[in-house]
Amino acid sequence: MTKNQTIGPLSVGNVVSAGLRIYRDHFNAYFNIALQAYLWSIIPIYGWAKLLALSALIGRLAYHETLEQPEVISEARPLVERKMWSFLGQGLLVGLILMGGILGLILVGAISVSILWAILGKNNLMIYLVGLVVFIAVFFAYIWLASRIFIAALPLAIEDNMTATAAISRSWKLTKGSVLRIQGVLFLGFLIVLPFVILFLLIMGFLQLALASIFGSDSSSYPLIVNLLSIAMNIIIGALTLPFWQSIAGVIYYDLLARREASRVKH
């Protein structure tokens, strides 16, 4: 935290409001970055690294907006893009962490169900109850794990001399005790985004019906046109929603740092 910072820790509602305000005030600039990011994602490996770097760039810009110390995009972008391969490595590592954690829980659950199956028989109600408990446990474990590393890209994008693994560790430490608050923020954000996603899906369905009536669903060109339309719509939806989520992430990162600073002052 800087000495010029005057904003304190934020409530769940204030985090979402701040993220929404930043998204609205910088929509054109952030949408342009996000659109470039999703267009780059079409290219394997290099494009994926660019996608992750540009995504993190939006989060960095939003974080500095929260600090009321806005950055110039042309100056911030090179600082983030030079770490693009670190973002790719971090993305792979985060994916492995999530996958490993979930697979581990599923394995434990499957072993538990198998043991009960062998002891009680396959038609015993207890087996189904244990299976349900395992499913719920895996679901909430995924939420907990994802929340702990949700902001992993932000330290890498913002802090100097930060490695991909150190950024994950920083996210893990900062989010300790804040999982429910982060989930509250993400849930409110989801409620905001959901109507627009539904609208785009309806538009997509309407366009598919229109194309089917024009070209005929049995036409050889129809699947290609629909696939191209689907890709275009996904890119547009991604470019519209990515800045919102990254604005939220930037505010969350600020809030977690502010809470850590407040905790230090108390002690």
UniProtKB/TrEMBL annotation:
InterPro entries assigned to the protein according to its UniProt record, in alphabetical order: GlyceroP-diester-Pdiesterase_M
Pfam families (alphabetical): GPDPase_memb
Key words of the record: Membrane, Transmembrane, Transmembrane helix
Residue ranges crossing the lipid bilayer per the database entry: 37-58, 92-119, 125-145, 185-211, 231-254
Glycerophosphoryl diester phosphodiesterase membrane domain: residues covered: 130-242
Name of the protein: Glycerophosphoryl diester phosphodiesterase membrane domain-containing protein
Organism: Planktothrix tepida PCC 9214
